[in-house]
Design a protein that fits this description.
Blueprint (H helix, E strand, L loop, with lengths): L6 H19 L6 H14 L4 H14 L22 E4 L5 H22 L5 H5 L3 E3 L2 H4 L4 H18 L12 H4 L8 E5 L1 H9 L4 E6 L33 E5 L3 H7 L5 H5 L18 H7 L1
Parallel strand pairs: 1-2, 1-3
Antiparallel strand pairs: 3-4, 4-5
Helix pairs in contact: 1-2, 1-4
C-alpha cells in the first residue's frame, strides 16, 4: 500500500510533472533525441524515488474523474498489444506541410503521454503511430478506398496481436468493433487539413469511422439552403457522414473517448463544425468557403 504523502512530497512530485510538460513544450519540432535528453534533464533536476512516484500516482489516480483508458485490456489481445491510430495521407501537394503535421502530432502525443507517465508508465512503450503515406496508393483516395484499406490492415493487425493460446478467430472482422479505437478509427490528412496549419490556430485532421454505412434516407433531401455542411445527403446537422474534424492535439483524447464503438454517436459533430466550434466562419475550410462567395 502506498505510503501517506506530505505536502512537501506532493510539491516535489508535481514539480517533476510540471517540469516534464514544460520541457516537452519547449521543443518546437519533434526530435526523439531532444525529447530523450529533455526528460533525462528533468529527472536530474527533479529527482523522485519509486516510492514517492507510486504514492503520488495512486493519489492522482484516485482524484482523476476520467483516467486515461486507452490501454483497457481486451481478453483476445496480447497483453503487450500496441495502441495508437493509423494516419492516412491523401494530399501530396506540400511535403513540408505534411512534415509539419506529423511533427505536430508527435509533439502533442509526447506532451499528452508525459502527463500520464506516472500512472501508466507502459503508455509510451506500447504506443505506435502508423503513417500511411504511399503516394501511389493514397493520393486523392476516396473515403471508401481508405476504409477498405484500413479494414484490411485492421484484420492483419488483429491477427498479429491475437492472444497466444486462444483458438484463432473464425472471422477476424467479428472482433474488430470490440478491439478498441486502433481497429475502428483512423486519421486522414487532406488538403484542408494541411492548409489548416497556416489558416487555423490549431491544425485539424479528419477522424474517420471504419465501420460506417450511410443512413437510409426515406425522404427526399430538403430544398432549403444547404448551408456549408460537408458530406451526406441532407441539410440536417445530425446526419452522420462517417467522419468529423478534430484538432490534431486531440490524438490521445479521442482514443480515450472512443473506447467502444458506440461512443462515436456521443462524440460526433457533423463537419465542417466540430467540438467546441459551432461557427461556420471559423470551422475548418472557412478560407475556401469565403473565397467562393
Amino acid at each position: 500500500m502506498p505510503r501517506p504523502l506530505t505536502d512537501e512530497d506532493r510539491a516535489r512530485a508535481q514539480a517533476y510533472l510540471d517540469a516534464m510538460q514544460k520541457a516537452m513544450a519547449s521543443i518546437p519540432e519533434y526530435d526523439p533525441d531532444k525529447v530523450k535528453a529533455a526528460l533525462e534533464e528533468v529527472a536530474k533536476a527533479h529527482p523522485i524515488d519509486d516510492e514517492l512516484r507510486e504514492a503520488y500516482s495512486a493519489e492522482l489516480e484516485a482524484k482523476m474523474a476520467d483516467p486515461l483508458t486507452v490501454l483497457d485490456e481486451r481478453s483476445f489481445l496480447k497483453p503487450d498489444a500496441a495502441w495508437g491510430l493509423v494516419v492516412y495521407r491523401v494530399s501530396y501537394s506540400d511535403d513540408a506541410a505534411w512534415d509539419r503535421m506529423v511533427s505536430s502530432l508527435r509533439q502533442d502525443i509526447d506532451s499528452s503521454l508525459a502527463k500520464y507517465q506516472q500512472l501508466q508508465p507502459q503508455l509510451s512503450s506500447r504506443h505506435q503511430l502508423v503513417l500511411m503515406d504511399d503516394k501511389a496508393k493514397f493520393q486523392g483516395a476516396s473515403l471508401e478506398t481508405i476504409r477498405r484499406h484500413f479494414t484490411d490492415w485492421c484484420v492483419n493487425e488483429l491477427r498479429r496481436n491475437w492472444r497466444s493460446g486462444l483458438a484463432p478467430a473464425t472471422d477476424s472482422t467479428d472482433y474488430l468493433e470490440r478491439a478498441g479505437p486502433r481497429y475502428n478509427f483512423c486519421f486522414l490528412v487532406d488538403d484542408i487539413c494541411l492548409e489548416s496549419l497556416e489558416k487555423m490556430d490549431n491544425p485539424v485532421v479528419k477522424l474517420v469511422s471504419r465501420d460506417w454505412t450511410p443512413d437510409s434516407q426515406d425522404d427526399e433531401p430538403e430544398e432549403e439552403e444547404r448551408l456549408d455542411w460537408e458530406g451526406g445527403e441532407t441539410n440536417s446537422e445530425y446526419e452522420d457522414v462517417g467522419w468529423m474534424y478534430v484538432n490534431a492535439y486531440e490524438y490521445v483524447d479521442v482514443q480515450n473517448q472512443l473506447r467502444d464503438g458506440g461512443d462515436w454517436a456521443d462524440m460526433y459533430v457533423r463537419p465542417p463544425l466540430m467540438r467546441f466550434e459551432d461557427d461556420f466562419d471559423q470551422a475548418p475550410g472557412f478560407w475556401r468557403r469565403n473565397a467562393s462567395k
